[in-house]
Amino acid sequence: WICIPCQPHEYLLDELTCMDCGLGYWPTLELTGCYELPQEYIRWRDGWALGPVCLSCLGLLSTLYVFGVFVQNNNTPIVKASGRELCYILLSGVLLCYAMTFIFIAKPSTSVCTLRRLGLGTSFAICYSALLTKTNRIARIFNGARDGVQRPRFISPASQVGICLVLISCQLIVVVIWLLIEPPGTRKDTAPDKRYVVTLKCNSGDGSMLMSLSYNVLLVLLCTLYAFKT
């Protein structure tokens, strides 16, 4: 008989048997047992995190500045004509988009994974819903003026905000259904060729993430359609 060395991820069960430590574990130096590998995830001091954080901070400050300009000139004719209520909703969505950067860089946990699912699609939905409501209103006003009909319905600020909130609530319903079907949590991911590296991730799959963003794609297509109409 000959001696056969154990694989790097195996330990000695006895003198004749090598045993796999399992995913997420690695043998000790003496090969007498296994220990749990440290979990890898993006940390705030990493270069991959510092770049997006700096850009997000710049975006947040710029958006807050624009928000302040709108508030300062809240009752001026230009701000009123631009649809200030929808502009505030749009700016809130932009702020949430920038803030989501910090959620995606934070260490994965059940609460963080829940916020990721809730915030990613919702932040985009807030922006696109406000844009869709604005473009739809403009298109209906132009069509009414061209056809010589009476003033279109539901173009008042309160009606526009209500329509926008209904559009946003559709995305929230999609997210709630997703959370019920696939409860949020974390998982340990290892590559077959790098079993010594354990990455901590949220348990949501790429397919379900894309499905949650499909409603936003619909909003974008409708925004584009009304933009061409006007």
TrEMBL record:
GO terms for cellular component: membrane. It is found in: Membrane. Residues 48-230 form the G-protein coupled receptors family 3 profile domain. InterPro entries: GPCR_3, GPCR_3_9-Cys_sf, GPCR_3_C, mGluR. The chain crosses the membrane at residues 48-68, 88-106, 161-181, 209-228. It comes from Bombina fortinuptialis (large-spined bell toad). Its main location: membrane. The gene is GRM-2. This is Glutamate receptor metabotropic 2. GO terms for molecular function: G protein-coupled receptor activity. It is a multi-pass membrane protein. It comes from the Eukaryota. The keyword Protein biosynthesis does not apply. Keywords: Glycoprotein, Membrane, Receptor, Transmembrane, Transmembrane helix.
